[in-house]
Specification:
The chain has 138 residues and is an alpha/beta fold. The protein has one domain (21-137): Cytidine Deaminase, domain 2 (3-Layer(aba) Sandwich). It has 3 helices and 10 strands. The strands form 2 sheets. An 8-stranded mixed β-sheet has the order 9-8-7-6-2-3-1-10. A two-stranded antiparallel ribbon has the order 4-5. A hairpin with a 4-residue loop joins β2 (41-47) and β3. The chain is globular, with a radius of gyration of 15 Å. It starts with a helix and ends with a strand.
Length: 138
């Protein structure tokens, strides 16, 4: 009985949609443009009670390259509101690579990738398995 209730709550939680603030998304696009042609990378912070992504956290020592970004995860603060990652692709594809999915599986629930030209139609959100998520912009 108790196990069934737990599973039901877990399914209901997964049906709730994530949201992202427009100003946070704009910050992501501008940050990606500023480091182009290198990759931009950061972590996503959420107001968990509302499931609204509202901030990008930059980790000290993050390395940006032409085809990679390396997080220094040991520099991650102890913060349970960090729910995933954001990074950019200098190419025109915002779909995750095999290396991206490996990162997704190690940390977080929601991952955003933005691609060149870094605007409202050149980004996507993915779960830890690389499955596309529908995120509402508010």
């Amino acid at each position: 009985m108790l196990i069934f209730k737990w599973r039901k709550n877990k399914v209901e939680q997964n049906k709730k949609r994530w949201k992202i603030e427009k100003k946070c998304l704009d910050l992501i696009f501008e940050s990606a443009r500023s480091v182009y042609p290198k990759e931009f990378a950061g972590l996503l912070r959420v107001d968990d009670s509302k499931r609204i992504i509202s901030e990008v956290v930059l980790l000290p020592g993050t390395i940006s390259g032409d085809s990679h970004a390396i997080f220094q995860m040991h520099m991650r603060p102890i913060d349970f509101s960090l729910i995933g990652t954001i990074h950019s692709h200098p190419s025109y594809s915002f779909y995750p690579s095999g290396a991206d999915i490996q990162l997704f599986q190690k940390f977080g629930k929601v991952h955003i990738i933005t691609a060149n030209p870094f605007n409202d139609i050149s980004w996507g959100a993915f779960d830890y398995m690389g499955k596309k998520l529908d995120i509402e912009v508010i």
